[in-house]
Sequence to fold (82 residues):
Amino acid sequence: MTNFPGAEVPERLDFAEKRRPTWLYLAPQEMYVVIATFGHGDTDSKYVVYRRGAGEDAVDSVDQLPSTDGFEVVNMKVPNRR
Fold:
């Protein structure tokens, strides 16, 4: 769920991946949801990045994590439970 400055209403980012999000990149005008795929699924790339910002959506398959410049990065990994 996002509510960027200047937006009239809160917005949301939908995704359909089998894995849980691994990292959340937050900036004042944009948000990335990064899911580690390790090359399994619909892409051979290591990560799928859902980008949301100022009314624009994009999905990219990449082998390197996005730059953290200008972002607060939240680790969403679930710790191993023993």
